[in-house]
Amino acid sequence: PGEVDDELEDEIASECSKFGAVLRVLIFEITQADFPADEAVRIFVLFERTEESTKALVELEGRYFGGRIVHATFFDEGRFERNELAPMPGEVPGFD
């Protein structure tokens, strides 16, 4: 927590634009004290086309960014649209 700087959103958009048209970048930081630090920053990227998001997922999964390993996955569109970005119980290993 507390590791998100003002440039992060632009850095993410720039990096992800290599895979296609980025429509939106959202950064969600979990500040709960007992939450695993390596899972505390969630970054959501909305692409114009599904194929672009698939390419980004394949290319980014397991890479290092800002000294951390990227865990890329698709996210429920309904939750994204409702801005329900916090993890659900059982979604993050070791934290309920």
Automatic annotation (TrEMBL):
UniProt key word Nucleus: yes
Domain RNA recognition motif: 1-73
GO biological process assignments: mRNA cis splicing, via spliceosome
SUPFAM superfamilies for this protein: RNA-binding domain, RBD
GO cellular component, one term: precatalytic spliceosome
Taxonomic superkingdom: Eukaryota
GO terms for MF: RNA binding
Keyword check for RNA-binding: yes
Cell location: Nucleus
Principal place of residence: nucleus
This protein's UniProt keywords: mRNA processing, mRNA splicing, Nucleus, RNA-binding
PANTHER family: SPLICING FACTOR 45, SPLICING FACTOR 45 SPF45
Descriptive protein name: RNA recognition motif domain-containing protein
Native species: Aegilops tauschii subsp. strangulata
Lineage: Eukaryota, Viridiplantae, Streptophyta, Embryophyta, Tracheophyta
